[in-house]
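Run: sequence + carboxymethyl coenzyme *A -> complex structure.
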Amino acid sequence: MDKMTDTGSASLTIGDKTLSLPILKGSIGPDVIDVRKLYAETDCFTFDPGFTSTAACESAITYIDGDKGVLLYRGYPIDQLAKQSTFLEVCYLLINGELPNAAQYVEFERSITTHTMLHDQFDRFFQGFRRDAHPMAVMTASVGALSAFYHDSLDVNDPDHRRISMIRMIAKIPTIAARTFKYSIGQPFVSPRNELGYAENFLRMCFAVPAEDYKGNPILARAMDRIFILHADHEQNASTSTVRLAGSTGANPFACIAAGIAALWGPAHGGANEEALNMLREIGKPENVPAYVQGVKDRKYRLMGFGHRVYKNYDPRAKVMQETCHEVLKEVGDANDPLLQVAMELEKIALSDDYFISRKLYPNIDFYSGITLSAMGFPSEMFTVLFALARTVGWISQWQEMIADPQQKIGRPRQLYTGPAYRDFVSVDKRA
Ligand code: CMC
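>> structure
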């Protein structure tokens, strides 16, 4: 860490005091003004709700150029990784910084596949939930509960403990996600199979039933793997920042990932793919698209799966997702699926409409992921669970980077206080 370089300074005048603030340069991307000494020297804070202009940390994992529509994991473009790599290779890359050589890959794959089982007692934990609980509620609780089952690896200051916890998280999260799904549909849990690939094993745990032999579909397994790659990391988004903030207190990694899953659940973040599919269903047919778009322009509702805080161009993940969507529908669905027709018409109309053009609103990854996952057999309540499964490696990589960072401090934002300045307590009999 600490690869940033000093490239000059910015001066800030407050009253009669002028302060010189260092400007730091990363390897690519915008420079940052280092305001760490601002409060000590001026008694002022910066004000940036939503962190639209704030770099909260130094990181060497993921880079986004939102204006150009670029996403790099450790320098590699997302489309190259999605088309040429595998999810486990991407996991290795995100955690270690480099792609594995053949021997490193074999060893990493072995360590993941031999940790996929859950403690037997963990299964009883699921029985406590109502069958109609939202799978994300079950995910948040059960991932948090991992710290109650694997407390032999919770010392965040021990690099060995951190490594074991990371492996456990990546290995066990598909088993938990699949059990969450099986529990919600009232089917028996399916144990992991170590000879299968990561995505293949996950699909089997979701869709195999004891009454018949399960036959995997390589096209769907490849699509699942690609969807995991596309969701693996995304810089300092809301859930990742939540993981870092929780981790900055020294909380154990399972608790931190559970916090990340909770943050991901919201419809403005990971919950958007569920909302996007619901929207396409509500529109129903391509003829209804113009009226729906008019409703968006009249600000009655937002176009789900459109727009992004960082991308002011086509989300590079959405391009690969669109291709994957076509492949999956050709294999298991209907290439003329009315929902796909609605999505394509909506995209066409929105991309040529000034409301969307002037606000730089483009499809994001969630626009096509809902249709794809639905065609693969997942109910919409599971979409965010799949996102959480894939993002776990990003969260854990960012958590590890933060713990190892010598500049790391407990995250403690300040505020612009606008409440009462001071008042004396009034006893209840004297209150109006
Ligand atoms: N539909 C219609 N108008 C929109 C949309 C949308 N989806 N997104 C933004 N706008 C408008 C918004 O009304 C505002 O217009 P104006 O300036 O006239 O008031 C302008 O665009 C800027 O919006 P904003 O809310 O300031 O932008 P933001 O950067 O805070 O919001 C966002 C980003 C993702 C929350 C938002 O675009 C949104 O709500 N999109 C729909 C939900 C969605 O698809 N989320 C998934 C994000 S990708 C997955 C992930 O990384 O988690």
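>> summary
Strands lie at 5-14, 17-25, 32-33, 62-65, 70-73, 76-77. The chain has 18 helices and six strands.
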